[in-house]
Amino acid sequence: MSSSALTTQDPLGHALLAYQRGQHQATLTVHSNVAEEEPLPAAYLFRSLWEMPELERTALNECRGRVLDLGAGAGCHALELQSRGFEVKAVDISPGAVQVMQERGVNEVACHDLLDPALTKDKYDTILMLMNGIGLAGTLEGLGGFLQHAHQLLAPGGQILATSSDISYLYEDEDGALVFDLNGPYYGEVEYTMEYEGEHGATFPWIFADPSLLQDCAEAAGYQVEFLEEDDQQQYLVRLSLKGQ
């Protein structure tokens, strides 16, 4: 990755590179349209297996065959799978993240967005989408589009292993009733901006899909749906398999 590729807005990549260069206090600020700004320490994206949430460890144990790790960040999942003998392609839209993964020893790394046609040249037995990875689809419409696109990425018998969350709790009033506009956008559609040392990235959409909505979308796109695990923060791990395989 050339240094010129890192001059564009890439606060995530610059924070990861800073951590990789020894600045272990490097921290992103995450802004959203639904909550207060939150710090995201770069260290979290370098976590080891036993620092990962249980949902992620379960997902890694469920991987099989050739793996496509989407939104791979600093490569913690790809490196763990490599250590187990898996063939993994790790993909991120951040040039800085891609450089960090290359430096950390991820064997196959590429800078792509979710729907890049270049990814369809190969077939994968597992598509891995962790850290609320369903969110990479951006919107409800984008989720349907990605699930259709993934047909071109999956080998026969392939699976998508993904995590997401139901964030309806953000819209509860003091009595516990849900308050949101039923005629507005789906409540799980969120807009984020990342900031690192004064550098703001472009605002991007992210979707948190509640389980029933995810099931409806996936079944409409031709998948069998199996919910594997849920934690106490309303996050869940789901396996999507193409029907009839």
Read across the widest sheet, the strand sequence of neighbours is 5-4-3-6-7-12-11
CATH class identity? Alpha Beta
Question: What gross morphology would you assign?
Answer: globular
Order of helices and strands: HEEHEHEHEEHEEEEHEE
Uncertain parts: 1-7
What's the helical proportion of residues?
10-25%
CATH architecture: 3-Layer(aba) Sandwich
Supply the helix-strand structural class. Answer: alpha/beta
Keywords: Methyltransferase, S-adenosyl-L-methionine, Transferase
Organism: Hymenobacter gelipurpurascens
InterPro entries: SAM-dependent_MTases_sf
GO biological process, one term: methylation
Describe what you observe in this structure.
The strands form two sheets. A seven-stranded mixed sheet has the order 5-4-3-6-7-12-11, with helices on both faces. Strands 1, 2, 8, 9 and 10 form a five-stranded antiparallel sheet that branches. The chain has one domain (3-242): Rossmann fold (3-Layer(aba) Sandwich), CATH 3.40.50. The protein is globular and about 50 Å long. By secondary structure, it is an alpha/beta fold. The chain has six helices and twelve strands. The model is unreliable at 1-7 (pLDDT under 50). This is Methyltransferase domain-containing protein. One of its GO terms (molecular function) is methyltransferase activity.
